[in-house]
C-alpha cells in the first residue's frame, strides 16, 4: 500500500499537470484562432469559437483585439457578435489605437455607428494624439465624420504636433470636408507647434480647391511659421503655379523673407519653376 501511495500520487499530479497544460495550450490556440477568424471574416468560425469559450478580448502581440481586426476590415456581423458578447469597445493597442479608429480609417460607417452605440470613446487619442476624427479626415470619409461629430467628436483636438483634423483634410485635398469642419467650429487659422496652418498644408500640396475654400472661410494668407515661411513660399518651392497666383490675388506678401533670408521667388528659382518665377515677378517680387 505504501508502495502504491508513493507512486500513484506523483502519477496523479503528473496527470493533472498534463491536463492543465493541454487545456491552457488549447485555450491559447483557440484565442489565436479567434483573432485570425475575426481578421479574415470567418463569421461561422468566430461564432463557434465564442460558443466554446474563446476570449473575445484576447490580444495579439501588439494588443489588437478581434473587435479591432473586424472593425478595420469591415466585417459587420463579426463586430455585432463580439459586441453582443461584451467585447471591450475601448481597448487600445500598444500605440493607443482603438476599434473606432480602425473602423473610421477603414471607411466602415455602419461599424462606426455600432461602436458608438456600444460606448466607444469618440475622443480617445492614440499615442501620438490622433483621434478617429483625424483618421476619417485623412482618408476623406464624410459620412463617418458626420457620425463622429454628431456623437461629440472634438473638431479642435490636437495631436502631438499640434495638428487638427482640419489640417489633415487640407493636406489630403478634401475641400468639402475642410468646409464641413470650419462650418462645425474648426479654427481655420489654428497653428501647429511649428506655427503651420491648414492653408500652408493645402498650398504645399497644390490643392487649389482647398486653398480657395480656406481663403473664403477667412484663412490669413500671410501667417508665418517658426522659420518665417508662408503659404506662398510653400506653393513656390513645390512649383504650384495656380496656388501661388491665387494666394497673390488674395493679398500674399511676395517679398516676405524667412529667418534664413529666403523668399518665395528664391524658392521658385531654386526649384526650377519658371512659371511661378514669372507670376511672382509680374506681381512685383524683387528677389
Which structural category do the helix and sheet elements fall into?
Answer: mainly alpha
- Please identify the oligomeric state: single chain
Which stretches of 5+ consecutive residues score pLDDT under 50?
1-23
Could you give the order of the helices and strands? Answer: HHHHHHHHHHHHHHHH
Instruction: State the end-to-end CA separation.
Output: 106 Å
Number of domains as seen in the coordinates: 2
Count all strands and give the number.
0
How helical, in percent, are the residues? Answer: 55-70%
Count of helical segments? 16
CATH homologous superfamily classification of the largest domain: Ankyrin repeat-containing domain
CATH names the topology of the largest domain as Serine Threonine Protein Phosphatase 5, Tetratricopeptide repeat
At the first level of CATH, the class of the largest domain is: Mainly Alpha
Question: What is the CATH architecture assignment of the largest domain?
Answer: Alpha Horseshoe
Mean of pLDDT: 92
Shape: elongated
Radius of gyration: 27 Å
The biggest sheet amounts to:
none
Description:
- The chain is mostly helical.
- It folds into two domains: 8-154, Alpha Horseshoe (Serine Threonine Protein Phosphatase 5, Tetratricopeptide repeat); 165-287, Ankyrin repeat-containing domain (Serine Threonine Protein Phosphatase 5, Tetratricopeptide repeat), CATH 1.25.40.
- Helices cover 58% and strands 0% of the residues.
- The chain has 16 helices and no strands.
- The longest helix has 39 residues, at 2-40.
- The chain is elongated.
- It starts with a helix and ends in a 5-residue tail after the last helix.
- The model is unreliable at 1-23 (pLDDT under 50).
